[in-house]
What does this fold into?
Amino acid sequence: MTDLSTRPEVTAGTTDPLRLLTSRPRQLVRAVLLGSLASGAGVALIGTAAWLLSRAAEQPPVMYLMVAIVGVRAFGIGKGVLRYVERLDSHDLALRLQAGLRLDTWRALTRSTWVGRRSGDLLSRVVNDVEAVQDLVVRVVVPFASAGLVAAATTIVITVLSPGSGLLLAVSVVLAGVLLPWLTTRVAARSVGTLAPLRGELADVAAEANDAAPDLVAYGATDAVLARITDVDRRLRRAEQRAAWATGVAGFGQVLASGVAVLGGLLVGAVQVFAGVLPPVQLAVLVLTPLALHEVLSTLPAAALAWRRSRVALERVREVLTAPTVGSPDRLASSADGAGDGEPGIAITGLSAGWPDRGPAVVGLDLHFAAGEKVALVGPSGVGKTTVAATALGLLPPLAGRVVVTGRVGYLAQDAYLFDTTVGENVRIGRRDARDTEIAEALLRARVAMPVDRLVGVHGTAVSGGEARRIALARLVVGDANVLILDEPTEHLDAPTATALIDDLWASAEASRAAVLVITHDPVLAARCDRVVTLPTL
Ligand SMILES: Nc1ncnc2c1ncn2[C@@H]1O[C@H](COP(=O)(O)OP(=O)(O)OP(=O)(O)O)[C@@H](O)[C@H]1O
It folds into this structure.
């Protein structure tokens, strides 16, 4: 067994089920062997107990029963202990593979800005679908492989005792272990294949309804959204019911297969006992051992469905891993971390910019500004000011032209995100090693008279719009950025607060010779910049 906290995580680097599983072959083999021994102990327990009961009925001296008595105890205890150890080992392997895959998925997420992706579905892929790798180990490979080994061993032992019963058992094993699982996946394939996408869709509509709840209630538009959620839920439930129905029918088939093995064993064994070729005490072994084996095989239809489900889920994860990147947030992070390669500044040359699957919002923009310069970008609503900022930040790839940003970038977004934590922790995002005193000072400079430990609520709903804006500003102030991109910094603020805040921002920008790009509709703020660039309407 291994300690997850001390061993490095496995990075799977693949979503191919076979390659995933064979990335830790020794642990996989060990888990399968432990699983086989646990299941084998269960079957051996019933077989030995059956012999013991029959033999005890003949009332021999107890010495003749001792080995069987010890065997029953050993198999009984061994079954539980081995199953426990197998569970530890197989879950350890499964969690390791899952951690590796999750790490790969996060890496893929950080490579792209995922502009335009449905966030609920993306979340469902990253959380639920990645977990499919757990099922692959615990519910598919270990049950199938160990059931196969135990079935082979049991069939050989029964064949040695009674070839006719062995043949019948082999037929029932093929029926229960191969045919029924295959039929189950055939019947339920389509509905199982839709489960993961439907869960993603449900997460998506539920997340959207949650975000939009105040507007929906205010406009009395909840019915339509609830109807959408109910519709997806109904489709999901139907798919789950179909899968459950297939598993139920397979369960019935399992009982039949087990009946064939038990009755067959009884008939063939009885004939052999009457013919004097089989000792009577072995009859119970021929009858009861197949029963125990079929208990092991009864999990296989569900395992076959889990295999199908895991493949669909891993395919969805693969789509995330191989999705084309949008923008270059990693480059942004490195330029933000790099200790300012050269003078801070932004050089935009011949830029055409726009959002994926839309035409360009901005065409042929030239905008160069240097350290210590403050430039206001103005223009009518929707003309593309935020699009220019997103492109300069690397969140969107330029459609044409070049954008070079030198220095440590600090960005105040128009809809800056507040996490559901304290004011202080929200500010600390600007500089992770900021001390409490520095956070308090940043809040003071951003004119937020709030205790650092006050909670801001989900999406900052427990603070006012102006307070949220200033907390986001404090996040910018606490960092040591020297290229500032500010999208509507004075929005939601009263005139005196806005003036005081800009005074402060300008003072610290001048001290660090920062290059400042301000997007604004506020003529007072624009007038306080060195230059005003007006974006033309296309
Ligand atoms: N995430 C997005 N996905 C697709 N299109 C977008 C997105 N954000 C903005 N757009 C579109 O891009 C165009 C430019 O929008 P942008 O937000 O850059 O304008 P803006 O000048 O900043 O407007 P405002 O002053 O109202 O904030 C608009 O037509 C807008 O509908």
